[in-house]
Batch of 2 targets.
Target 1
Amino acid sequence: MTTDEFRIHAHELVEWMTGYMENVEKYPVKSAVEPGEIFSRIPDKPPSNSEPFNSLLRDINEIIMPGITHWQNPNFFAYFPANTSPPSILAEMLIATLGTQCMIWETSPAAAELEEKMMIWLRDMIGLPPGFEGVIQDSASTATLAAILTARESITNFSINEEGAEHAGTLKVYCSEQTHSSVEKAVKISGIGRKNLVKIPVKADFSMDPEKLKEAIIHDKSRSYIPCCVVATLGTTGTTAIDPLRAIGEICRENGIWLHVDAAMAGTALILPEFQWMLDGREHIDSFVFNPHKWMFTNFDCTAYFVKDAGALIKTFELLPEYLKTRTRGSVNDYRDWGVPLGRRFRALKLWSVIRSYGTEGLRDKIREHIRIAARLSEHILKETDFEILAPVIISVVCFRYKPAGYNEDQINTLNEKLNHHLNDSGRLYLTHTIINGKYTLRMVTAQTNVTFEHVAKAWDMIKETARNLSP
Ligand SMILES: Cc1ncc(COP(=O)(O)O)c(C=O)c1O
C-alpha cells in the first residue's frame, strides 16, 4: 500500500469509525452468532496476491461486524466496562502510526518520560502517597502477577529467583472469597501453588473480614507456613465490595506481609474526593493496581500499576543481556524491568490524550454521573415489591433479582437465569450475572462511556416487563 493509497483509505476509515460511533446504539448489543459461524466464513488459506483494502473493509462489514459484541453501546451493562472515548481512539491511531516499541528509555525517550509523568498524574489524581511510582501494564492480571512475584521475592530475600523454591518453605497468600480469579491465577503460576491461597470469609456486605484474616495468619504461622501477601480488593467483581484497607493493612504491617490492592474497576472512583474513604489506610499499601481501560475512558489495554518500592519490583524482574546495555541505564526508567514483557506499547499517549481532553473535572463529572445513575436505578428497583437488591450499591453496579411471590429459591434462580438470557437475546441490552449466597443475581453496570439515565430507565422497563411475562 502506498502512502497515497493509505491517505485515501485512512479518510474512508475515519468516516467508518465516526459512523460507527454515531450508530452504535442501533447494533444488537450482544452478538447473536453461533460458535464457528465466523470461522467458517474466513478462507482456509491466505491470499497469494495483494487484495485491495476495500475488500477487507467489505468483509469487516459483512463477516466481522455480526460477530462483534458492542461494548461501546450505552446499553452494555455487562461485566465491568471496557470503555473507549474519541480522544483515546485518536491517540491509539497515533500510537499505531508511530509504531514505537517502548521497552527501554532509549527505544523512545518520550514514551518512557511521558509514562513516568502520567503515572505521577494518575497517582495524584487517585490519592496514593507521593512516594509511589507507577508503570503501565497490559492488564490487572499481569500487574497482580507482578505483585505476587515481588512479594514472593521480598519475603524470601530474592532467593527463589536465583535458587528455585526447593528450600523456601511454604508461602501463603490471602484474599477474600469474593476476590477476582486473577489472584488465584497469579498464585497458581507463581510457583506458590493454588492450595496455598487462603480465601478469607466475608462479612454481610461482602468485604473481607479482618478478624478472620488475622486468625488465618496466626494459624498458618503456628504451622511454620510463611504468610507472604494479602490481596485486598476495592470493588470486587461480583458486588463491588470494598475491603477495609486500614484494618487489613495493620495486620500486614504487624506480620511483615506484602499488601497488594486490586482496585481494577473502583480505582477510577478514587478521583472523586467523596470516595477517598476507600483508601483509608493507604500508608500500608505495597502495591496497587487499577484499570483506566475499564472505567476511565482509555481503550483497552491500559493498566496502572503502582508500587511503594520500585527497587523491589525491578530486582524481581531485571536481567541485563548484552544487547540491552545502554549508557543511560540507572539514570532513566527502563520499563522492561518493571514487569513481564520486554516489548511495550506507547500506552501513555492514550492517557495523556484522555486526561487532557476531559480534564480532571470532566472525568469527575462523568464518573459522578455514572454513580448517580446506579443510585437512581436502585431507587426504582426498591419501589417494586417483586424485585430485590442483593448487595450494597457503592459505585456504579446494582445487583438485583426478580423475586415474585409464591416460588421457592430454586424456581427463582431458574426464573432469573431465564430472564437474563431473554434480555440478552433481545439484542437491546446486555447484562451479566453473579451468584450471591446461592442466589442467581443480575448485575447492572451503569458505567459505559455514553450511558445516560434514559438508557437505564428504558432497560429497567424492559427488565420488569420481560420478567413479569416469564414462567419458571
Ligand atoms: C476486581 C478485578 N480485578 C482484576 C480483573 C482483571 O482485569 P484484567 O482484565 O485487566 O486482567 C478484573 C476484571 O474484571 C476485576 O474485576
Target 2
Amino acid sequence: MRDPQILIVGAGPTGLVMALWLAKLGVPFRIIEKNGGPGQTSRAMAVHARTLEFYRQLGIADEVVRRGIKVERMRLHEGGGDGSVLNFSDFGKGLSPYPFILTFPQDEHERLLGERLHAMGVQVEWNTELSGFTDAGDHIEAILKADGKEEKCATSFLCGCDGAHSAVREGLKLKFPGGIYEQMFFVADLAADGAPANGDVNFFLGTHQLCLTFPIRTTGMVRLIGILPREVAGRENVVFDDIREHFEKMLSLHVHKVNWFSTYHVHHRVAEHFRLGRVFLSGDAGHVHSPAGGQGMNTGIGDAVNLSWKLAAVLARKADYSLIDTYETERIAFAHSLVSTTDRLFRAVVQENLAGEIVRSILFSHVIPFLMGFSPIRSSQFRLISQTRISYRHSPLSEGNAGDVRGGDRLPWVETDDGANFAPLTSLDWQVHVYGQASQALRRAASDANLALHEFAWKAPAEHAGLERDALYLVRPDGHIALANSKQDVEKLRQFLSKFKITPFHATSSANN
Ligand SMILES: Cc1cc2nc3c(=O)[nH]c(=O)nc-3n(C[C@H](O)[C@H](O)[C@H](O)COP(=O)(O)OP(=O)(O)OC[C@H]3O[C@@H](n4cnc5c(N)ncnc54)[C@H](O)[C@@H]3O)c2cc1C
C-alpha cells in the first residue's frame, strides 16, 4: 500500500466526511477503521442545516434530504400532560437552503457517505486499527494492525477521527478534561404504535425524566432516547423490559418489538488541544457533550470540513503552513462554547429543585412556545441549533467587515433569480463575491490571483442577509468569509492572500451570476 499524505483514523461520520472532502480535492489519503463494516446503530438522528450546506458542496445534500425525514413539529409534554406544539416547518426560512431540522439515522447516514466514497474510488480499510504512532518531525510513522499483521505507514498528517475513546488523543497524551453526568441514558429502536409514532418529535419532560421520540422512515418504527428512571438506573445489565411498563405508560405507546436497546453514560469534555505537530483530533475524539440539541455529529462534520481544506491547501503548497494553526483556534473555541451551552441547557431541564420545576412547567410549556411564535426569535434559534451561526471572527484568518457581515462569519445565504449564491461553493475553492458591481481593478486583481469572481445582481434578499452593496467578500473554501471590505480595496485583498500565501486550487476565469 502506498504511503498517503493523510491518514484518517476512524470511519464514523467525521472520518467519512473528511475523506469525501479530500477525495474531491484529489489529495492522496487512507482511511482505516478497526470495525469490520459501517456502524449498525442509529445514534445521531439530527442532521442540521450547516451540515447539509457542506453536503451541498460535496453534491450529496439532495440524497440525504431525500432519505431523511423533515421534522415538522415537536410536541412538548411536561409532567405527563399533552403539552404544546412547536411548529418547525420553514423554521429557518430565508436563512438557509435547508430551513428545517432533518432526522436521518446515523447508521444509514454512514452507509450513504461510504457509498459516495466508494463511488469516488476510495475504499475504507475495514478491520484495520491504529496501534501506535510517532512524530518524526517532518512526517508521522504510524503502526497499523490488520488480520493480526503489523504494517508501518508513513504519512504527512495523522487525523484522529476515532471517537470518544480516541487512541490518537491517548497517543498524544492529551488530557480530556470535563465530567460525567450522573444520569444513565438509554437509546431504543422499537416497532410500536401509539401517539408518539405520529411522525413528530415528542419531548417528554418531568422531574428526573427526559425522553425524546423520533420518527423513523419505516412505518411503525419509533426511536427513543432518554434518561433511565431512577429505580432502574443503578441496576446491572438493564434491558428494555426493565423500563417497558414505565415508558409505555408515560408515552402511551405499545411496543411490539425491540430492535436495539443500549444504555450509556454521557460525558462533557473537550481535549486540551485539537492539534500537536502533525497530528489532529476531530469529532468525538476532541469533544463530547450532552445530546441536547443533537449537536455532536454535526460538530464533528464541521471539524472535518474545517481541517480538510486547510491540510489539502498546505500539502498542495497552495497556502502557508501556518494556515493549519487556525484549525485549533477556530474549532476548539466552538467546542468549548458548545459544551458549556449544552451542559447548561441539560442541567436546567433535569434539575430536581424548584428552579427545575419552573424551567419545565413555565418556560417549557408556555414561554418557549410563545416566543417561538415570533419570527426574530425563531430565526435566532434556528441559527443557533442549525450551526449556521458559527463564526470565526477571532481567527487570524478573518479580517474586515462590510454591512452586517464580518470576516469569519458564514457567507449569508441569498436566493437569487437563477439559484442562490451558494452554487459556486461546490468548487471547494477560494472565491470573491460582489453583490452589485465589481470594479475593473477588482476584476484584474482577482484574475491575477486566479480567483473566481462571482458578481450577483444587487437585490433586496442580499440586503436582508446583511450584505453590503458593491462590497468585496473573499470567501474561503468552506463558505466562511475571510475578508470583507466595503471599498473593494484590492490592496487589502493582495495583502490578505500574501499573508497566508494563498493560491486557489484551480485556475479560474471570472464569472457573472
Ligand atoms: C444515543 C446517541 C444519540 C446521539 N444523537 C445525536 C444527534 O441527534 N445529533 C448529533 O449530532 N449527535 C448525536 N450523538 C453523537 C454522535 O453519535 C457522535 O457525536 C458521532 O458519532 C461522532 O462521530 P465521530 O466520527 O467523531 O466518532 P464515532 O462515530 O465514534 O466514530 C469513530 C470511529 O473510529 C473507529 N476507531 C476508534 N479507534 C480506532 C483505531 N485505533 N483504529 C481504527 N479505527 C478506530 C471506531 O470504531 C469508530 O467507527 C448521539 C450519540 C449517542 C450515543
